[in-house]
Amino acid sequence: MTINKLRKKSTGCIRLNCLKLGLFFVLTAIFVCVYPVASLTLGEGVNMAKTADGDVQAMSGMQASEDEINVVADQANTFDVIGIEPQQSSEDGYVVKEYVDPISGKKLKQIFDSEGNMVKSEYYDPELGTTLTTEYENGQIVTNALVNEDTGESTSLNYDTAGNVASSDYYNPELGSTLTTEYDNGQVLSNSVTTIKEGVMQSVKIEYDPDGTTIYTTVDLTESENNKVTIAVSSGGNVDNPDDIIDATVETQPGAPAGVHWCPTTGQYEFDS
Q1: pLDDT tens track for 8-38
Q2: How many CB atoms lie within 10 A of CB 251?
Q3: Is the domain of 130 the same as that of 182?
Q4: Whole domain around residue 104: which residue ranges?
């Protein structure tokens, strides 16, 4: 689920919703410091890396598995529309058909382009309180996103052209964190934990090199200088052991936009336009 976006509010403010880790590295040019705080030290970078290791393990157990998402996807694919008159409408040039099972209350919403190709479907199960959103390109599934409507947790799987999972995103609103995992032929290439909540705007990316080296890149965007720490740990080593650290650098990259403040009402960082 792509839950990490920049969106404008009706009040004229822009709110910084849970950013994907990639945005910390691609869009850092827009960031300046939030508060005049101390710089990020190597020791703090190590602590962030250790915490991220635990977060990855914990959040991996919380997110919906590929098998669980496939079960819901199969239910959506076998939704019986026979005998159900769809509610049909148009949205931005797309044709929308929505089917509602009068007995179970389950809903299937299908969105088609002008040529009749399905570009998106949404399947809602009121008993489970889940919504599965599937996106298509050229008739092929590119994303399956499962949202728990009760907890706000979401897991999305993004597929390559061969139908394999290329990456996954799990968002936990209680933690204010997103776990992003990148794969290559089923092999985990990296795990990234991005956390945005009151007083916190930071990310840790953990890359697993083929030679066994682990590289931790930690960024704290609430700090104005020396806010990025990169640590390389030898094969089989532990980031908590100084003898296992084979390289470490502390750098500065731009922080968060000036004027950013935490809004307890929306539960997000905001800044005036």
Answers
A1: 223 333 334 433 333 333 333 223 323 334 5
A2: 13
A3: no
A4: 67-152
